[in-house]
Amino acid sequence: MSENGHVPSHIAIIMDGNGRWARRRGLVRIRGHREGVESVREITRECAKRHLQQLTLYAFSQENWKRPKREVNLLMKLLKDFLIRERDEIEENNVRLTAIGRIDGLPEDVQRELAISIDESKNNTGMVLCLALNYGGRSEIVDAAKNIARSITAGKMGIEEITEETFKKFLYTSEMTDPDLLIRTGGDMRISNFLLWEMSYTELWVTPVCWPDFRKRHLEEAIKEFSRRERRFGGLQE
Ligand code: IPE
Ligand code: IPE
Ligand code: MG
Question: Which of 64, 94, 147, 193 is catalytic?
Fold first, then answer.
């Protein structure tokens, strides 16, 4: 099939395989997470340069709390360091940082640094970098349903007004477009509770490459494959 010239404007990534990357090298899992930060840096820079509208990164799922405390603590520390250290880079690339997930469930120091980074970058006009933190797709839908119920009880909304469009307004992603392309590294063919509502018609691309090895050339491969896909959204080919 030939390329149709379509480029994704919103890419979402499940950054998986850090642990396996480390294990294969005889290293502790935590080393994989550290290396993964370098991939985040390179891919964010590259996507910003390509003038993508949005890059959404699955950095910590709600289910990831099930991991040993030591690993969770290190992930939180890496996240905090990333937020502090990348501020200049975010500024230089005109990136606007946002976050989705139950942010109030994150450690307070992480919440604080996140709030600072979001505030400092709020007037940037380039790519949106959205971090999914303490994120769960089902929780997002449950939270939206609760807020809709509150609106109805308060008399601000009627049941008949619940449509796909109004529902969307209650999601964490209310201000965003749906992802065009989902990349999952590490080879597993699953969604792992990521953006369940938003990915109805997202193109999926899975690579066996583990996240710490994921580089610009892999991103280019994914984008090229996307350009060959024919998106029909349930309709027929033009
Ligand atoms: C992804 O890598 C990072 C997070 C989930 C935070 P993993 O830690 O899941 O690595 P694998 O899947 O065990 O290799
Ligand atoms: C998905 O990876 C979550 C993130 C990348 C943050 P997991 O490693 O948690 O997913 P499962 O457990 O293999 O489905
Ligand atoms: Mg994993």
Answer: 64
